[in-house]
Fold this sequence. Notes:
This protein is an alpha/beta fold. It contains 14 helices and nine strands. The protein has a six-stranded parallel sheet with strand order 3-2-1-4-5-6, with helices on both faces. A three-stranded mixed sheet has the order 7-8-9.
Amino acid sequence: MSNTLPKIAWIGLGIMGSPMSENLIKAGYQVTGFTLEQDKLDRLAAAGGSAAPSIAEAVRDADVVITMVPASPQVEAISYGPDGILENAKSGALLIDMSSITPQTSVDLAKAAKDKGIRVLDAPVSGGEAGAIEAVLSIMVGGERADFDQAKPIFDALGKTIVLCGPHGSGQTVKAANQLIVAVNIQACAEAVVFLEKSGVDLQAALDVLNGGLAGSTVLTRKKDNFLNRDFKPGFRIDLHHKDMGIVTDAARNVGAALPVGVVVAQLVASLRTQGDGGLDHSALLRAVERLSGAQV
Length: 297
């Protein structure tokens, strides 16, 4: 393994973080990881990475620190305080936060890190678990061009569509828009599925032909089998999409953008959670439409 590659600390080894960190190991990077679950640390070690007992230990010698945690509170918890990244990473390190959080949290983090001599990029991703495993994620980045250029080889090992969207927080703003489009798209697909089934049409045939025309989408390609098989094993949980819809509706209110359809879908996502479906894949929006259409699910 070449020692010229930057040393990477990876914080957060969940559904997305584990396969992403493993893709960096495959690309020849030395990865030291920390996460709360021991089995995830064991998985990283088995893949050729090193498990650290704490955030401080993980980031101490790292040139690049990458974080992938659920939401703004977790980003703040791992970044700030005596045991956090900013107090323990070396000056000159690059912190890449790949979590999906509020744009303001990213702006605040970049400001706080600058005082410590640490550079920051917000780099949320789209593509779900499959995209993480296959290293074909879309990565939307906010921050300085020079830092983006330095991080580009790392992003290339994780994704396929990698774009600098503007200053700090811009990546998160684009991610929020992404989650708006995805949720509305899943909702439209779910409504079509219920309509087709109640009409007695062969669902497999119908979805195949729809996906070949203007109604086709990455959402339909990725989620078609979930709809057909009612398989809602989480690739991206309703709980997380609920969080993201809160981010986009709040951010849109702040800038004066109306989201009439998005707000309705946000409420449908919220209702799924209250019905106990928060741990299911976001394609489970189908269950909400089925309930509204009289089915017992």
